[in-house]
Amino acid sequence: MYYSMMKLESEPIANLTLCTVFDHNYISQALAMIESVEAGTAFQIKWNILALSNDCYEILLNLNTAKNWNIYKIADIGDTDFEDLLTSRPWREFCWT
């Protein structure tokens, strides 16, 4: 069955998991995106968010009042090779690794 992302009164509620990645420099844009997606759908959304900075992580922990966000730090991934890329790649490249 096909589900549109548009809110329709007859549309059944289903679960949807979405992922996003951002740091504290883009937190306002990311929060606007999350709000926009949630306002435009009848799905119950669970978010997996990779916070690319400690500041971002702390802010998100304080804002997660709905408890529908799983918030992760880079260290939570548990891959030392991935973490080592922080020192060997420019930030703009690391973010899209």
List its traits.
elongated; 3 strands; single chain; 22% strand; 97 residues; three-stranded parallel beta sheet; alpha/beta
Q: Secondary structure elements and their pairing?
A:
Elements lengths: L14 E8 L4 H13 L4 E8 L2 H10 L5 E5 L6 H9 L2 H4 L3
Structure notes:
Strands 1-2-3 form a three-stranded parallel β-sheet. 9% of the residues are buried. It starts with 14 loop residues before the first strand and ends with a helix. The chain is built from four helices and three strands. With 97 residues, it is of the alpha/beta class. β2, α2 and β3 form a beta-alpha-beta unit. The protein is elongated, with a radius of gyration of 16 Å.
Brief account:
The chain has 97 residues and is of the alpha/beta class. It is built from 4 helices and 3 strands.
Strand order, biggest sheet? 1-2-3
Number of strands: 3
User: What order do the SSEs take from the amino end to the carboxyl end, as H and E?
Assistant: EHEHEHH
Parts with pLDDT < 50 across at least 5 consecutive residues: none
Report the mean per-residue pLDDT as an integer.
Answer: 86
What structural category do the secondary elements indicate? alpha/beta
Helix content class: 25-40%
Q: Which term fits the overall shape?
A: elongated
SS summary, helix count: 4
The main pleated sheet reads as: 3 strands, parallel
Task: Tell me which oligomeric state these chains represent.
Answer: single chain
